[in-house]
Amino acid sequence: MPHALLPRRSRPSASVLLVAQPLCRPTALGTNLFVSQPLGHPTSPPVKPAADQVPRCHGDEQRHPRPPRRGGGDYRYARRAPPPPPPPPPAPAGEAAIVCLLVDDMAASLAFYVDVLPFAVQYAMDAAAAPVPVGDRGRRGDVVFAMLKTAAGAEVMLQLRAALEADYLPAGALATAPAPVGAGAQFSIYVRGVDVDAAYAGLPPTAEVLFKPRTMPYKMREMALRDPANGFVVVLTKATETA
Fold it and tell me: I need a surface site. Which of 147, 180, 188, 200 has the fewest CB within 10 A?
C-alpha cells in the first residue's frame, strides 16, 4: 500500500527505518564494510564502527590471504627487526716466525747450511744491497744476507754480523763479542720435516754429529749437528708414529 494512503501513525519514519548498504570504497583496514545509515539520506556519511567490531565481507580471507606472522599476532603491526651489526674487522696476525742467524763467516756458513743441510738459497745480496746469483759459489764471500729454504718450506736467514751492526741496528744493540766456536752453543735451531736417516747417510766425513738418528719418546726422529762456523746446534727432526 502506498505511504500516502497509510494513516500518519503507520508511516515509516526516515530516522527510524534503517537498511544495510555496502560501503564499497577502500577503508583504512583494507576491507569492504557493511554499515547502516538512515533511509532517505543517501549522502549521509557512514557510521564507522569500532576497530574491534568491524565485520569482514564474505570471502575476504579467501581473496586476500594474509600469511601468519612469526611469533603470532597481526603482521600489519609487526616491527621490522633491525639489521645485524657488521662483523668486527679481522685482528692482525703474523704468518710465520723465521729465525735469523747472525754469522761472522758467511762463506763457511753457506757451506754448512746449503752443502750439508737440506737448505737452498732463495735470495742473497751483497753490501750494496745488490742481488748475488744463488748458484755462484765463488761469490759467497760477498754475501751479507741470505734467505734459505728447504723443499718442505722450512726457512732460515743468515745475516753477517758486521753488516748488521754497520747499517741496520744502532750501536750497542748486539753483544760486543760472540762466544768462540767450541765454547758451547748459545743457540739451537730445529728443522722439522727432514728425512733424518737419509740426511745422516749423506753427511760428509767432516760433519760433527752430536747424536745420531734416534727416536725420541715424544714420537720424533731426531739427529743433532754442530754448525762448524758459528757453534750453533742444529737438530733435524721428523714426526714418526713409532714410539
Answer: 180
Q: What does the pLDDT read at residue 53?
A: 52
CA-to-CA separations, 19 to 9, 13, 36, 49, in angstroms, rounded: 20, 12, 6, 16
Q: Return the amino acid letter for 88.
A: P
pLDDT of residue 81: 80
Nearest to 56 by CA among 87, 88, 34, 80: 34
Q: How many angstroms separate the CA atoms of 20 and 40, rounded?
A: 13
Task: Enter the C-alpha cell of residue 32.
Answer: 569492504
Contact in structure between 221 and 210 (CB atoms under 8 Å): no
C-beta of residue 214 within 8 angstroms of C-beta of residue 235: no
**Low-confidence stretches of the chain (pLDDT beneath 50):** 14-40, 54, 61, 242-243
- Domains annotated for the chain, with CATH where assigned, are 14-66 (no CATH), 99-239 (3.10.180.10)
DSSP string spanning 154-194?
Answer: -EEEEEEHHHHHHHTS-TTSS-SSPPPTTS--S-EEEEES-
Q: How far apart are CA 106 and CA 51, in angstroms?
A: 93
Give the pairing of strands 99-103 and 155-160.
parallel
